[in-house]
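Reposting from the mailing list since nobody answered there.

I have sequence plus structure tokens for a pair of proteins and want to know whether others read the tokens the same way I do. The first protein:
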Amino acid sequence: MFKNFDKVFKYTFRNQADTKSYKSMMVIVSLILLALPIVIMLIVNNVQQKDDGKIKPSGASAIYVVNEEAPNTDFNLLNYAGIENYDNIKYISYDSVDEALEVANRGTDILVLRIYKDEGEIKSTLIVPESCTISKGDADNFNEFIDKNQMMFTVLGSGVSLNNLGQMSMSVENDVYNASGYMKGESLLENKEEAEAVAANSIKSTVNYIVVYVTMFVMYMVILMYGNSIAQNVVMEKESKLMDTMLVSVKPQALVFGKMLGILAAGFLQLFTWVISLVVGFIVGCKIVEAKGGNLGIISFIKSMPEMGIFTPLNIVLAILTILFGVLLYASLSCLAGAISNNREEAATNNSVFIVVLLASFYVVLFCGLGAEGGVMPLWMMFIPPVAAMVLPATLLMGNISMGLGLLAVLFVVLLAVVLTILAGKLYKMMSLYKGNRVKLSKAIGMLFSKA
């Protein structure tokens, strides 16, 4: 039944993979996927390191304060806040802006701060004297200092009692405990491993969504691209009238299986090359960021994956198996369309069954899974093979299904893929020399079973 299957497979695979467009796409996309995570992680790490919470210095050695609401308030209390670059500034009070500017013009590093009340709110205006050499950007840094310490400025500006204001301006010590750690007096912030675990858990739901929908879209695009190609290739010999000659040396089942698997092998080679490039990109990005002293949440998540049961070797094997047979399942539908067609036009029309099933599964996942809590897809999706092919690989990778149920769901996908593939081979054999009117899929299946 499978005589010369290997020759058909090799020939089809070579025709798919040995083209300039195929090789160019594989190389270009691989390089993009390799570089993308590295670039993104480096950018995020640089932003985090620059945005370390410190306020840049304003360059002012003194601030002349005109507080219209509470003229006698001593703003030197702000130095007790202990904020770097703003803990050694001299604040001097004046009765009017004109007076403050007149004195400030005698120096080059003095700013004037006016505080007033407007519509019941305390507001401030920072003025740069004519003789001041402080740049606009450095002066804006003092405005940032005001924004981050609005409560203290409001209290000082409104003339509220200054008792215990020094205590209010002091930093508050804080800590984080889990329930068991609190009883033992062990802080999460003191335990680096537990702190990383907390960070990892906080992004797990986000990673769930990303992995599920990236997997779904990749599967959708791969199936869509290669499904139509399979239907067109299966019908090629019928249209070119070479069928009669070829059937002397190649059985119909060997022909259809060889073509389908040859095309899928080329697709899987591309897909797994891209996945490997992406994984290597993440690994390299993590190593570079760690070498720079960075600590991104995604790195903590990756380190915690074994403890969280995510991306374990068995889960990866099952996910790959689901991808292989999931694509095979949809490919067998395209084979069915090609098997009952006599030319490319008929194959395109009959292939509508494949398109309907693909789109239906895609939208079921998109709309029924979009609001899933924490990105965990509903369990019922795992036991409808066309839908499971979309979401089961990601669900297995993220450890969101028990191993027993996961194996059962994978078995359903495998069984349906095998049954449809065998059915496609039998239909192709039955219709290989058919010369009558166009046969629809439903009629062909009816003829097959009635014949049996």
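The second protein, same order (residues first, tokens after):
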Amino acid sequence: MNKVVDDLKQYGTVQRALLGIQGKDVNNYIDELKAQNKEVPDFGTVEGIYVAKVDEDGSAADVLKEGDVITAIDNKPVTKMAELQEYLFGNKKPGDKVTITYLRNKNKKTATVELKNAQGNTKVVKTADMDVLGASFREVNEQEKKDLGINYGLVVGKVNKGAIRDAGIPEKFIIQTANDVPMKTMDDLQNAVKEASKSKDPVLYIKGVFPTGKRAYFAVDLSKE
């Protein structure tokens, strides 16, 4: 857990390095195929990680392809997807390099790749807070709930330089959901900003209502410096 603690101290959030694949344990995959009465390919091994999909912008996009079987990472044998994830999470950060040993058509191959984060680059991922929005907010009052027929929402107050203004959201607009999560309290918005800023798509998709009752949808980009 030393890396986790160091990341929190240095960056404020854990730096997750991803290989950019979807996979499953080979032995489990073989069992699935047998249970479905499907032909079981000869992978050249019954231990390792079957690569089911490779993210086109992921770390291994230029190396791995569907059907490969990962057998080792940095010369450490891996037989389960959980082992691979645990090794990367506990030891690597975006920008680090790893050596992958894998089988393709039963032929052993090795390659070194540079690890990326969930956003598809090697930058340090920083957790954003509500300051990035550049606006003040308050919870809707009882009169606003009654007038607009709503049960919750956050009213946009003064708008300064920031993501809210860049997205075209005006003062008095009432935010009801952000990334499909109901915005009932300030903590809800804070949590939504934090989660979105660390995701592959660092955007808040906001739905809400104007004081006139007209509904609207905005995309708030959190990736801008």
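Reply #1 (J.P.):
I read it the same way you do. The chain has a mean pLDDT of 89.
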